[in-house]
Write a structure and sequence with these properties.
single chain, about 110 residues, mainly alpha, two-stranded antiparallel sheet, about 5% strand
């Protein structure tokens, strides 16, 4: 049987990166996620995504960064909601306490 030559659209077989390669790529791109966490995660999965062999670990880095950005944005929104709730509660308490105080003109003058 004759060996087939790879055509112009054929991708080379996936080559597993080293932890240093991943760390260098993350630093070069300025990504915020931990490269060791990324490498350990995919090393434990056998460099598979679901049941498929990973095609590009650099593309997986982009996905991890997008998720990192999304999680940071959600956390900021959650904190803003929390600040808003606590501010509203403080404002409500202020006006409630103010309404319970005697007006200044009801105090007898000596």
């Amino acid at each position: 049987m004759r060996a087939r030559k790879p055509g112009p659209g054929v991708r080379a077989a996936f080559a597993k990166p080293t932890a240093e390669e991943v760390a260098a790529h993350v630093r070069a791109k300025g990504y915020a996620f931990d490269p060791d966490e990324f490498w350990n995660f995919y090393e434990s999965k056998g460099w598979r995504i679901g049941s498929h062999v990973m095609k590009s670990w650099r593309s997986a880095c982009v996905t991890w960064q997008k998720r990192c950005n999304r999680d940071a944005r959600r956390e900021a929104e959650r904190q803003a909601r929390q600040r808003s709730k606590s501010w509203a509660a403080a404002e409500k308490k202020y006006y409630r306490d103010r309404a319970l105080r005697k007006p200044w003109h009801d105090v007898p003058v000596k």
